[in-house]
Amino acid sequence: MNQRAVRKSLALSLAAIAASALALGAVPAGAAAAPPPSAVAAPPSSDACRLPAAVGGLGSGFPVDEQALPAVGTLKAALLLVDFEDHPASPASAAEAEANLAPGVEYLERVSGGRLEVTTTTSDGWVRMPEPSTSYPFERGLSYEDHVRYIGDAIAAADDTFDFSDVDVVWVTATKEAPNITYSPTTNFLDVTADGNHLTHAVTFGYDQWRWGGLVLAHESGHTLGLPDLYLFEAPPEDPGNYHAAVGGWDLMGLISGAGPEYLAWHRWQLGWLDDAQVVCARGDRTTSARLAPVALSADAGPGQAAMVVHPLSATRAVVVENRQPVGYDEAIEARGALVYTVDTSVPSGEGPVRVVDATPGSPDGLDDAPFAAGSSWTEPTTGAELTFRAGPGNTLKVTVQP
Ligand SMILES: [Zn+2]
């Protein structure tokens, strides 16, 4: 959850939080300029599909929010382990706390295809906070100011023995002994200076980390890097209580414990984790086909395999198709095939900037069986474009967009 979301939706329940390639037939660059023999033309530049951000803060447009940290390069994290006079931690439990978050770091490095390297410097054992745990009102509606005070106290308590001069993001994890540090908010507006370094980005890891496991670190880091929440801050009136009506468990920013917690291909493109050449832009004036590698393998996709097809609908909206197969972090998905979703760059975090199209509306499994199976098709209701999905070699998927 992002700090702006905290400010906006303080009453949010834990349940809510639960929250080189190319189109076939393309003419390679530098090839003879003869026109392709069929209606299948070279894809236009991905620029036409790079939808500009049309909302402030965290969202799904380009570029990501200016307050986000770079997602390519090295992210230098300070991990502060904190305990409290009313909930002291045993020295031995430090290793357990570190181990719980480690899978989140591994996730970021794997899903980025190595484009993001995370270096973590951990405090030398537990750092005692100056106030009892109950002075931080996580259970009573944590404000932005409360959160900054909590993070600031942790930094001040650690500062004597910790060098913050070269830190990009501060992670503060509370001892498991303090269940009243309930959840795990993020801020990109910290505004604390230590060792001459103006610290702006921080994540708190509270008791919910023991339910989510380490992927909570990757979700919160998504906010640090500019990604929005894809679960809904308010459930739709027609589907009360369903905070996951937009993307179900198909993206880590939607549901940490979902069966398919890979980042969506669109997110990877936003973060610079996909090359433009891996994005096939299907404009409305020609037929476009592409062969898609599974999203989980997009960093290592073979030649001729793209990561997604984007069919723009307007200046701020597009339909995206990606290939989801039970590999990588998608190992446990119930249904495989073409995951189709709309992206709207005018919709803010938590209000559904991404919405998955359900191939099986009304099924008891909700969005768990949302992908379109190979051999099926779908007509986009506003442009009338027909999208067809066929199995390709291995676990690839051939997608054709026919205007
Ligand atoms: Zn979030």
TrEMBL record:
InterPro entries: Peptidase_M6-like_domain (IPR008757). Transmembrane segments: none annotated. Residues 1-31 form the signal peptide. One of its GO terms (molecular function) is metallopeptidase activity. Keywords: Hydrolase, Metalloprotease, Protease, Signal. This is M6 family metalloprotease domain-containing protein. It comes from Promicromonospora kroppenstedtii.
